[in-house]
Design brief:
Strand content: 15-25%
Number of strands: 15
Shape: globular
Structural class: alpha+beta
Helix content: 25-40%
Length: 269
């Protein structure tokens, strides 16, 4: 048993939740996943350069599909558990999993989350950005700004041998301080060798709780911040799109991160 195994065993014996060894990426795996993450970020940059009022969300889907495949990748959401498109486009009161549509047009003042996930050579990456279309209301602008701040504070709270709950506490505290709520039932996830891996990453759990952050772990920090109630409902027709229960605005920003010996590295954002 090496030093890492001894440390994990000791933490587990003390009642801490520790990751299975299979969740700790090897240097070779990290190198390959970073290539996927670089492409994922490039896709988001490509969307950022073209997104504008008047375009339909189906056009965003085409931008993502074409750019990803032209660079040797596969959009990870496409056909994942039946999802019909290459990207999620979540507009205004959509919490997540919005499906691009040729009849859904971006208008001045809209806020939209574009969630891009990439499979490059069997290695997975995932990140999302909020886009403000033209000029929006002060309320929408504030929600987007605070959501970005939540992710940055969560990232700052993430330290090797700390806990996932440290990230959640920083995010939830900042959101609530500004009068917002954090969606509880949907969270982040491990990633790298699969599109979705353990652990589930909550953003409402207490500091010092949940899984220990061990070097080699990879996961997403992607809180969904609502201006009203944290509750939601899922579109019965498509089985995917998640809406706020009170029709309030929702925002989400997603970073993909790697826990290292000295800190946390952002791989895609």
């Amino acid at each position: 048993m090496n030093k890492l195994d001894v440390k994990l065993w000791t933490l587990a014996a003390r009642g801490h939740i520790v990751p299975d060894r299979s969740l700790l990426k090897t240097p070779a795996q990290i190198k390959a996943i970073k290539k996927s993450a670089a492409l994922n970020t490039a896709v988001l940059d490509h969307v950022a350069a073209h997104i504008q009022a008047g375009m339909c969300t189906e056009e965003i889907d085409r931008l993502v599909y074409d750019f990803t495949t032209e660079h040797g990748g596969i959009p990870a959401p496409l056909h994942y558990e039946g999802f019909p498109k290459s990207v999620c486009t979540s507009l205004n009161n959509v919490v997540c999993h919005g499906i691009p549509d040729k009849y859904e047009f971006l208008e001045e003042g809209d806020i939209v989350n574009v969630d891009v996930s990439t499979n490059l050579g069997g290695y997975f990456s995932d990140a999302s950005r909020m886009f403000i279309i033209g000029e929006t209301s002060p309320e929408a602008e504030r929600l987007v700004r605070v959501t970005k701040e939540c992710v940055e504070l969560g990232l700052k709270a993430a330290k090797p041998w700390g806990h996932l709950g440290d990230i959640a506490h920083a995010i939830n505290t900042h959101a609530r301080r500004h009068g917002y709520s954090v969606v509880e039932e949907i969270g982040g996830h491990g990633i790298g060798l699969e599109f979705h891996e353990e652990p589930f990453v909550s953003y409402v759990t207490p500091k010092g709780s949940e899984m220990v952050l061990v070097p080699g772990m990879m996961f997403t920090i992607e809180p969904m911040i609502n201006e009203g109630s944290p509750d939601f409902f899922i579109d019965e027709d498509n089985g995917w799109t998640v809406y706020t229960i009170d029709d309030g605005l929702s925002a989400q920003v997603e970073y993909m991160v790697l826990v290292t010996e000295t800190g946390v590295e952002v791989l895609s954002q």
